[in-house]
Amino acid sequence: xxxxxxxxxxxxxxxxxxxxxxxxxxxxxxxxxxxxxxxxxxxxxxxxxxxxxxxxxxxxxxxxxxxxxxxxxxxxxxxxxxxxxxxxxxxxxxxxxxxxxxxxxxxxxxxxxxxxxxxxxxxxxxxxxxxxxxxxxxxxxxxxxxxxxxxxxxxxxxxxxxxxxxxxxxxxxxxxxxxxxxxxxxxxxxxxxxxxxxxxxxxxxxxxxxxxxxxxxxxxxxxxxxxxxxxxxxxxxxxxxxxxxxxxxxxxxxxxxxxxxxxxxxxxxxxxxxxxxxxxxxxxxxxxxxxxxxxxxxxxxxxxxxxxxxxxxxxxxxxxxxxxxxxxxxxxxxxxxxxxxxxxxxxxxxxxxxxxxxxxxxxxxxxxxxxxxxxxxxxxxxxxxxxxxxxxxxxxxxxxxxxxxxxxxxxxxxxxxxxxxxxxxxxxxx
Length: 430
Hints:
Layout: H1 2-10, E1 37-38, E2 51-52, H2 60-77, H3 81-94, H4 104-123, H5 137-148, H6 153-171, H7 181-199, H8 209-217, H9 229-239, H10 244-253, H11 262-275, H12 277-280, H13 283-295, H14 297-302, H15 305-318, H16 322-336, E3 339-340, H17 344-364, H18 370-377, H19 389-407, H20 409-413, E4 416-421, E5 424-429
Parallel strand pairs: 2-4
Antiparallel strand pairs: 1-3, 4-5
């Protein structure tokens, strides 16, 4: 650990570090592509006061996630690693998911490293640490835990993920040319250490979605001959096909800006739909294309939009809950429906997807989840830094109320109020 400390605190090149035993691959990061423009907000027409919908704070999903995050964090603070490892192992083995499709094992694992990550992110908030900031104290403590439990793949996954999280805190999400060399070197060093940790637990020997997800996360700093992206994600998806997050990540990484191609994206979307048909119907195709078409114009233009929309309906049939309804409604109406590029084929597909929001809201929405709508407006960027959760949620609620109100403009123009109940929206004379 002394060498790692010297490397990162003095900002020397990681090639000199013991963690780097191979030529450094240049991080493969998104290329600049056509910018998807947001449609300008329409002037207020129908008043949102004519719309009434419950807005729980926190939502049931947020309560569940916080519960597991707090458990992981508390058990680490109590240094109860044996019990935590066993709890995560059991959750991982049972493939437990929250109603919002988040693996419980990943929530517990994040809670376990949360203090270390938050300290690093705070120290690197401005892109470089303050003089004397104890950047390595937390990760060194985790490394000591791993040294005491070298055969525990759960602890290995936690420490590897902590290294990657710190690496991203160093690097940020800007274009490679915009990142200072010392930051890129720190990013690469942490990812190399994570890769070395994961290598000690061959995937074929473990039936672990958590470990497989950790392995997939390493692709962000893989060399060209290490990609085999479809193989990595196929293994992860097959371990837990009920988790659509891995399908969404596959689609994003199959874009040409990462490791794939448009033809490869379409192929993997169809292959995934076929393998997960018993669980998702056509939804596997939709999940793989979900984030890809929201951020890539050509991917959207190439989309089999009929198959995609069929998948939206199948997802709602199989997961009819408030989280799913908000996620898909916000995605159709905001992520896709409020974007345009000037590509006629892509924009026509966006229009058809946006029209699905009408039926989703009317047939499935019972309450409003502002944070989902706020993230939808930002393209569900996992690396987005939210400085004020309250203001961020408020922006999501404003967007949602404006869009949902517009979907009921005819009824409101006739003098009716729209009240959402547990069974959906009801039209009530004003």
